[in-house]
Amino acid sequence: MVLNRASGRLEHRQFGDLLDYLEPGDVLALNNSRVIRARLRAVSARTGGQFEVLLLEENGLNDWWALMRPGKRARIGTQIIFHAPQGRPATVRATVLAANADGHRRLHFTGTSNILEALGELGEVPLPPYIERVKATHMALDQERYQTVYAGPGGSVAAPTAGLHFTETVLTDARSRGVQVCFLTLHVGAGTFAPVKTENIAGHVLHEERYELSEPAARLINQAKQAGRRVIAAGTTTVRVLESVAAQNHGRLAASAGRTRIFIFPPYNFSIVDRLLTNFHLPRSSLLMLASAFAAPQETRGRELLLAAYAEAVRRRYRFFSYGDAMLIL
């Protein structure tokens, strides 16, 4: 779906038609974070009770915050033994060190030099909970499909889903038309998808996510903005990096790495991004609010404009959420 912000006009196209909306000199910015196999299976060393563990944030070597289910049984001091997806026990263990206000557990891993290196054997693709997989063949396909073709550094526990639509052919064709492609990194955390529950949305606090913007990417985008050329962001995660860095540098970009918890909602003045490619998002999510802000920058009518487009998408049986269809907001 293509949404024209100024007129409210909708078009219905195929993803390959994206190139019809790009011009020579445009910059296409993509989040190249790689999804790690962050979902693990374990049992209590004392009782044999089962746990599902979702790695969330690395504090240091073999030191992670994780979401554990059932959480009530994951008391401080609990020791757990991990199992491979086929059910056989592994040598990797962990001890629950602490719990935070969100109910997450801090785990210290043993039996491996680095738990990240063991995820290929122990981990599963961390699909969203609304996607159910029973057959092993489907899970094997997810290992490839729930990853962008340009994925680089690992660290995300959910895919930057707008990027899943791209193929090598689309990227090659874009470059051949004079579009400049650049990459940045934001490691997507589970907090991005947490529903906004506060009465006043300004009171909602996003979890921090690690990002990195290289000097060549920052320079390329700054040059485009200075020359009046457009920046197209693929995904809300890309927007968050660019607008976070710009907010720290008086509207310009600079090479940087750090953490961001920027929460973009209407009204918002975008400094960098001129076009947004995104998926169709869950209700009450910060992602939906960012897209609403982009639909009408510096105004509050973006929510109505976006939800009207969503209603049309429902009527035309567009697919929503992670493996769903794309929307280009012009």
Question: What spatial order of strands do you see in the largest sheet?
Answer: 2-1-17-16-14-3-12-13-15
Please count the helical segments.
7
**N→C terminal distance:** 11 Å
Portion of residues in helices? 10-25%
How would you characterize this protein structure?
With 330 residues, the chain is α/β, with parallel strands linked by helices. The protein is globular, with a radius of gyration of 21 Å. It has helices at 115-122, 136-145, 168-176, 215-226, 236-248, 286-295, 302-315; strands spanning 2-3, 10-11, 27-31, 34-35, 39-44, 50-60, 63-69, 79-83, 89-99, 105-110, 154-156, 180-186, 209-213, 231-234, 256-260, 275-279, 326-329. The model has no long low-confidence stretch (mean pLDDT 92). It has two domains: 2-35 and 143-329, QueA-like (3-Layer(aba) Sandwich), CATH 3.40.1780.10; 39-122, QueA-like (Thrombin, subunit H, Beta Barrel), CATH 2.40.10.240. The longest helix is centred in the C-terminal third of the chain and has 14 residues, at 302-315. The strands form three sheets. Strands 2-1-17-16-14-3-12-13-15 form a nine-stranded mixed sheet. A hairpin with a 5-residue loop joins strand 5 and strand 6.
